[in-house]
Amino acid sequence: MIASLRRIWGLVYRHIALYRRSWPRLLELAYWPVLNMCIWGFTASFLTGRLGGTAMLAGAAIMGGVLLWEVTLRGQMGMAISFLEEIWSRNLGHVFVSPLRPWELIAALLAMSVLRMLAGVVPAVLLAWAAFQFNLFSLGLPLALFVMNMIAMGWWVALGVVSLILRHGAGAEPLAWGVLFGLAPFAAVFYPVSVLPAAVQPIALALPAAHVFEGMRGILLDGSVSAYHLAAATGLNVLWLGAASALFAYQFHQARVRGALLSIGE
C-alpha cells in the first residue's frame, strides 16, 4: 500500500510541478469560474434591483447553480486534462513501463481533479461573497453532499471522455472541454426540471446534477432539504461511476492489446 501511495504521489507531484512555476496555468484555473461568477452575479444584481425580493431569491439560486456547476466542470476538466497532459508530453507509454497500475493512475487523476477544482472554484466563491453578498455556505450541511455529488458526476464524465480518447485518440480530445456543456440544458442548473418538455425530463432525472440543483433550490426558496433528491443524486452517481469505470477498464485493456498506449496522440 505504501508503494502504491508513493507512485500515486509521484504522478500527482509531476502535475503539480507543471503549475508551480507557471502563473499562466494557475491563472487559467480560476479565470473561467471567476468570469462566469461576474456575468451571472451582475445578472442577478440587475434582476434584484428591478424586481425586488422575489428576484433576490432567484438571483441566489442562479449564483448557487453557477458555483455548483463549476464544481462539476472543473472536476471533470481537471481529470481529463491531466490525462491529456500525459498524452501531449508523450509520457503515457513511459508511465506504464513503470510499476504504475491503472487504478493508481486514476487515483492520481482524481487527486488532481480535486486540486484543480479547488483552485478554480474557491476564488469564485469568495467573489460571490465579497461582491454579490451570496454566501454558498448558507446552504448548511447539505452543501457537503451537493459538492461531493457534483464532483463525482465530473469524475464519471471524465472517465467516459478518457475511455473515448483511449479508443479514438486525438479525435476525441475536444470532448474534454465540450461534453458537459452539452449536458447543461438537461442538468437544470438555472431552472427546475418541470419547465423542460415532458419527453426530456427523464433524461434530466437520470443526471445527478438535476437532483442536486432541485435540492439546492429547495433550500434557498423553501428552506427545506429533500432527502429524495440527495439519495437520488448519490445513487445515480454510484451507477454512473460503476459504468464509467467498467468502460475505462475495457478500453484501457484494448489500448494495451493494440499498442495504443505508445502511439496515442501521434
In short, what is this structure?
The protein is mainly α and 266 residues long.
Tell me what the structure shows.
This protein has one domain. The longest helix is centred in the first third of the chain and has 36 residues. Helix content is 80%, strand content 0%. The chain contains 11 helices and no strands. By secondary structure, the chain is an all-alpha fold.
* Share of residues in strands: under 5%
Q: Let me know the average pLDDT.
A: 89
Helix content, binned percent: over 70%
Q: What's the count of strands?
A: 0
How are helices and strands ordered from N to C? HHHHHHHHHHH
Counted up, domains total 1
Uncertain runs are: none
Distance separating the two termini = 34 Å
Shape: globular
What does the main sheet amount to?
none
Count of helical regions: 11
Oligomeric form: single chain
**Rg value:** 19 Å
Label the structural class.
Answer: mainly alpha
